[in-house]
Design a protein that fits this description.
With about 290 residues, this protein is an all-alpha fold. The chain has two domains: about 110 residues, Transferase(Phosphotransferase), domain 1, CATH 1.10.510.10; about 160 residues, Tetratricopeptide repeat domain (Serine Threonine Protein Phosphatase 5, Tetratricopeptide repeat). About 60% of the residues lie in helices and about 0% in strands. It contains 14 helices and two strands; from the N terminus they run βαβααααααααααααα. A two-stranded antiparallel ribbon has the order 1-2. Helix 11 packs antiparallel against helix 12.
Length: about 290
């Protein structure tokens, strides 16, 4: 995986993140090593992740200077020093490689092997593929996301979240008309009558289509079928307020506002979602991991 960016928490960011450079798995190694250093220190003694090497050197020189610190084995300190090398190629290639060093250090310090077995890679499911696709879309890697949704639907043709996300992706590309996406979302949810999740996702699509009556009805059904979460209540508030605004009835608007206080909405709010990937990607459906 290779991407570019500068987002993150400054206290755990690598130099390449600060500089907006190329990021890969070894960028995570730097951030992970900072978490390990913080555990041994008992606190974070640095302001930004770029100070990692200096913070490690200070801790090694004065390991007892901090009130809540724990002595660090030399093997662990040497591993962290490798992780804090600015040359990405000099860092451990993966976190599995770093974990092997930690297991060996544990065995030497404790006099017995680390009890927990090394985890095996999980089997791909439609849920995991859908969630990975949603994350790839955050990185503007639309083609890869589309491939994962295709794979998810090959594994589970009725997988609801993958179906909705793929439909919305096609719609955002103008590959589907409004009536087509409506027909397909109805088809996808028909076999899941009584499912609050299906009703919620259908309501979201109808909201994007500007069918505020249909959206409010579907979202209201979802809220009746199960204890509604905050995101469902928020979607329902948007649909009801949009419907009230379209009706031009101030009394209805007041009633809606009295019933739904989960979101501060203005009568000037633009609720029709623009037809672009970010408009639906920011609200895309994620399944359980």
């Amino acid at each position: 995986m290779v991407t570019r960016g500068s987002g993150g928490t400054p206290g755990y960011m690598s130099p390449e993140q600060f500089g907006g450079g190329t990021l890969n798995r070894r960028t995570d190694v730097w951030s992970w090593a900072l978490c390990v250093l913080e555990m041994f220190c008992g606190e974070r003694t640095w302001k930004t992740g770029r100070e990692a090497s200096e913070a490690l050197g200070t801790f090694r020189a004065e390991p007892d200077a901090l009130a809540r610190s724990v002595r660090m084995p030399d093997a662990v300190a040497d591993l962290l020093q490798r992780c804090f090398t600015e040359n990405l190629d000099a860092r451990p290639r993966t976190l599995s490689e770093a974990a092997a060093v930690l297991r060996e250090a544990y065995a030497q310090a404790a006099g017995r092997p680390y009890a927990r077995p090394e985890p095996r890679a999980g089997v791909e499911t439609a849920d995991s593929l859908n969630n990975r696709a949603a994350s790839l879309l955050d990185l503007d890697r639309e083609t890869e996301a589309e491939e994962l949704w295709t794979n998810a639907l090959a594994l589970s043709p009725q997988h609801l979240e993958s179906t909705v996300n793929r439909l919305c992706l096609d719609w955002s590309r103008a590959a589907l008309r409004d009536d087509e996406i409506r027909a397909r979302i109805d088809e996808a949810t028909t076999g899941q009558r009584g499912s609050p999740r299906a009703a919620h996702l259908r309501g979201r699509v109808l909201l994007a289509l500007g069918d505020f009556d249909g959206a409010a009805a579907s979202l209201g059904e979802a809220a009746r079928l199960a204890t509604p979460a905050a995101d469902l209540l928020g979607d329902l508030a948007v649909a009801e307020c949009a419907r009230a605004r379209d009706s031009r009835e101030p009394s209805t608007w007041t009633q809606v506002g009295a019933r739904r206080r989960t979101r501060a909405l203005s009568t000037k709010m633009r609720v029709r979602l623009p037809r672009s990937a970010p408009s639906w990607a920011s609200r895309r459906a994620r399944g359980a991991s």
